Amino acid sequence: MANHGPVYGLSRELQMKNQARFNLHEAIEVLDWIQTCTGIPFEMEPYRMTNENEVAEGLRSGVQLCVLAERIMGRGSVQYIKNPRMPFHMMENISKFLEAIKIYGVPEISCFQTVDLYERKQLYKVIECLRAFAAVAEKRRAPVPAAKFAVKIADEQPRNFSPDVLNQSHAVIALQYGSNKGASQKGMTPYGLTRQILPDGK
Hints:
Blueprint: H1 9-21, H2 24-38, H3 52-59, H4 63-73, H5 87-104, H6 114-118, H7 123-139, H8 163-167
């Protein structure tokens, strides 16, 4: 991890918000699923982890992530460094994992940046990305144990309308073009006109 000094002001507020969005229980569920899929135990058992730094430490080499991608997508689908020693090797593994899952079908908006994991910038995004990856894997019936936390992705249900039905929309005038229904200006007087005070009955 890169050495960063303490942060203050707005940066500190953002850091606190990111830390507040991290859910340790969800992270432990995700790491336990990864361990089950890969068959490779973490140095620390997920259920013994107590903070986000311990969670990040288990994933930051990128090896577990790449092995997970291979189990789901097939052997040889991710080219990674199996025994990374240098920081740039670890970051390269994380980048390879991200490239692979985007191809597999995880939306780019659901993916995290390499520094979010390696430098522990926004660890909650890492967990959200892995949850999205588990959901896509379940939808595509990957040969790994199903994740209990995965949200089922809805299937597409395209609608095919005939030209006659589509042409009926041209006969409808949208309300943004104006309407003569409802409220009107009947009884209103021009702006600036002096008020008329008349006796009752006249």
